[in-house]
Amino acid sequence: MDRYLHAIDNVSTWAGKAFAWAIVILTAIVCYDVFARYLFRAPTDWAFDASYMLYGALFMMAGAYTLARNGHVRGDVLYGFFPPRVQAGLDLALYLLFFIPGIVALAYAGIDFARISWGLKEHSSLTASGPPIYHFKTLIPIAGFLVLLQGLAEMVRCLICLRTGVWPRRAHDVEEVDVDELKKMVNVKDEDIQALDKFVIEQEQRKEPKP
User: Fold this and answer.
1) How far apart are CA 144 and CA 141, in angstroms?
2) Cβ burial, residue 100 (10 Å; 0-12/13-18/19+)
């Protein structure tokens, strides 16, 4: 099961990191527009449209990535004190009551938005020569599907935690350095670390001035 969960994590991560490059393009466009406007008195008529489309694309496509990293804002004043099974139960209830209906509605409505926009070959109406935006609206159902897929993976994690009492590891947890494996590589045991800690504490105590 972990293999499938990590595969979904990797898809969400790939999408988020790929669209993260939109920040670089967005920064370059904004800088160019500022220089053109204030130094050369020649403002562009396309920078605003490009800016909100790039930012919107980044915002939508990073949703699944953020969920995969468990990085969405959470009001966890009390949540962090609960045992894992209680946390999993709360998360699962919230996914079923709010997340799934909301994301399904987003993806379903996004299909119509994209279909109508492609049928009209819709262009931005903010400027006289507005760029096409039907490709931009296509990202709405795609982003909704990715977030929904990641949400289903999170629900499976909740069920696993309810059964085992331990949260399953995420893909990026596996990517991080495994402390136990690192200890084996350098032939260090827990006893050695404890002895070193004791030695350091003793040295610090000896440095303290006596009353």
Assistant:
1) 5
2) middle
- Residue 203: pLDDT above 70? no
User: What is the Cα–Cα distance from 68 to 1, expressed in whole angstroms?
Assistant: 16
Residues 106, 4: Cα–Cα separation, whole Å: 25
**What does the domain layout of the chain look like in residue ranges?**
2-176, 179-211
Interacting residues of 141 by C-beta distance below 8 A, sequence separation 6+: 107, 108, 110, 111, 113, 114
pLDDT in tens, 106-131: 999 999 999 999 999 999 887 777 88
Residue 123 bridge partners (DSSP): 132
Residue located via tokens 């507005």: 130
Q: Kindly tell me if the per-residue pLDDT of 150 is higher than 50.
A: yes
DSSP letters for 42-60: ---SSHHHHHHHHHHHHHH
Q: Are 92 and 53 in contact (CB under 8 A)?
A: no
- Residues in Cβ contact with 189 at an 8 Å cutoff, skipping those fewer than 6 apart: 183
Q: How confident is the model over 151-171, as pLDDT tens digits? A: 999 999 999 999 999 998 887
